[in-house]
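=== Discrete structure encoding ===
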Amino acid sequence: MTYRITGLSPDQFAMLHKMDDDQLRAINARRVIAATSQGFPCRVTLEDAKKGESLILFHHVSHDVATPYRSAYAIYIRENVRQAAEFIDQTPPVFEGRPIALRGFDAEGNLRNATLALPGQADARIRELFAADEIVYIHAHNAAHGCFSAAIERN
């Protein structure tokens, strides 16, 4: 089973980068500076921002489906990134060193199975979920904070 993990398209966030701090606050978003080089995971590049980098923290609907499994939470994106990351049959840097919750969904957006991947286990757990034909895609979330990390699809 082969899979593909992609970051979110930066085009959908272009307007956020043009907003000043007051405009961001008006939509419950914030411009933040990474205090460390871990703990500020960008959902476009799928790697942690470096200490001192500017990011935007905002509310994002990650699973926009007409089922009870619709999901939204706060995420970070680096400012002015131009290209979404893509990983084929390997996990991105944001999965390293943190437990990842993996949620497997069917074609209608209903949860069919889920598992927890401890550091170093994500690849194996993704392959285990995709072993079931009913799993069409997987959403990865940071297990501790609950925020969306990346979408995973069959390749």
